[in-house]
Structure formats: structure tokens, C-alpha cells
Design a protein that fits this description.
12 strands; DUF3581 family protein; 5 helices; ten-stranded antiparallel beta sheet; two-stranded antiparallel sheet; Thiol Ester Dehydrase, Chain A; 237 residues; alpha+beta
């Protein structure tokens, strides 16, 4: 399983170190959000890695919804039961809940399909900041705090017409931002294709915190810092 370097498992307990989470964020998801840095004060494991671990453990179902309810820290022991129902939650060993999942339809444990789905989704997700969120904020004349940029992964869902595919690609078809004071609710809708065939649709929601009026220079500097982190990582790799 291609996720093996990014988590540790002992019986039903799964944990992710800050180093593993940071390597997944940068190396797999191309996500350079500082919150996933090993030394970040408010470090958290990427939501995309939690999503991927669930698929790796329990398989890919035609219809799935993930709701993220807490930030997983360095080395937190998450309980992944051997068997789950069509509605289940991921908690830690102290009963704190981080993720709820519902699923229906046919399921597959095929590693080829699951890996293709995960890689395509997290690659799409990694482009969200500079390619989607920044243009949306500019369009609405707002920006997040450039000193402490915080984008919270709220939920994602998808509906597959079929599980008859070997590879899959995601494409963004609609993006909206609803601003309410200092909060911004982002909805991203996407399609899933296998070659030229549409095989499903999906939706991702995020929350932007600490919104303030757009200052173009500050926004540009924030984007430049993000891009510099990306380039620095690629050159060091």
C-alpha cells in the first residue's frame, strides 16, 4: 500500500507523526500549508491523509461523505476498528472524535482503484489554495490573515455511478465563496472521469477564518511565500 510510509499501526491503533504528515502533505498532496510543517505551533495531520487512510482500511464505496470534526495532532492514537457499519466515526484512544463517515452502494478493496482515487483527489486538493481559493478571495475583496493563514477542511463527498475503472481524474466544475463577517464558506464541486467517461461527481467544503478586507500587496506576498515553500521543497527533494 503506497500509504505505508505515512502512518504507524499497532493492532487497531493508527498514528501519524508530524514528520510523516509533513512528507505526505508536501510529497503526495503538494500541499504547502504551514500548519502541516513539523515545527508548526498548531500542527495538524492533513485531512486528505485521514481520508486516504479510511479508504485504505475500509475500501472505496460508490457514495461516501466525510465530515472533519477535529484537528489530529502529532502521534495521536486513532482507533480504526477491524469492522465498521455504513456510518462510523474515527476517534482517538481518549474518545475524542475527529472524523465521521457515511457510505452506501457497492464497495471495492482493490488497491489499484483506491490508490488512483486517492492520488487524483489529493492532487486536486493540493491545487486548491493558489488556483482556487486565492482567485475566489480576490473576487470577493477579502483575504485570510497572511500572518496566520487558516483554511479548515470541513467535508467532502462523492457519488460514483460505477466502480468499473482502473484510473480516475478529477476536474473542478464549480466554486463558490459565501462571506459572513470574518468567516468564509467555500464549496468546490468536481467531476470524476475515467478517460472520456464521466463516472461520478463530488463536493468539498472548506472554511476560511479571520477574513479581512483584501490588501493586494499582502495577498501577493502570501502567495509568493507559499510558492517559495513549494519551490524550496522541490529543489531539496
Amino acid at each position: 500500500m503506497f500509504l505505508s510510509p505515512y502512518f504507524n499501526k499497532a493492532q487497531q491503533l493508527v498514528s501519524v507523526s508530524a514528520q510523516q504528515a509533513s512528507e505526505f502533505a508536501k510529497g503526495v498532496a503538494q500541499d504547502f500549508n504551514p500548519i502541516h510543517d513539523v515545527d508548526a505551533k498548531k500542527f495538524c495531520v492533513p485531512g486528505d491523509l485521514l481520508f486516504a487512510l479510511v479508504l485504505g482500511q475500509y475500501g472505496l464505496s460508490q457514495k461516501m461523505t466525510f465530515r472533519f470534526e477535529g484537528m489530529v495532532g502529532d502521534g495521536v492514537n486513532l482507533v480504526f476498528p477491524d469492522a465498521v457499519d455504513d456510518g462510523f466515526a474515527i476517534l482517538d484512544d481518549k474518545d475524542k472524535q475527529y472524523l465521521s463517515v457515511t457510505r452506501s452502494g457497492e464497495s471495492t478493496l482493490c488497491e489499484v482503484q483506491t490508490e488512483s482515487f486517492v492520488r487524483s483527489y489529493v492532487a486536486f486538493s493540493g491545487l486548491n489554495f493558489t488556483h482556487v481559493l486565492v482567485p475566489l478571495m480576490k473576487q470577493h475583496g477579502v483575504m485570510i490573515n497572511p500572518a496566520r493563514p487558516l483554511v479548515i477542511y470541513e467535508s467532502m463527498s462523492f457519488d460514483l455511478d460505477t466502480l468499473d475503472f482502473d484510473s480516475i481524474a478529477l476536474s473542478l466544475v464549480e466554486q463558490t465563496l459565501v462571506v459572513d463577517g470574518k468567516r468564509g464558506d467555500v464549496t468546490l464541486k468536481f467531476e470524476l472521469h475515467c478517460g472520456d467517461k464521466l463516472v461520478g461527481t463530488g463536493k468539498k467544503t472548506l472554511v476560511l477564518s479571520g477574513l479581512r478586507p483584501l490588501v493586494a500587496e499582502s495577498m501577493d506576498e502570501m502567495v509568493d511565500r507559499y510558492e517559495a515553500r513549494r519551490i524550496g521543497y522541490q529543489q531539496a527533494d
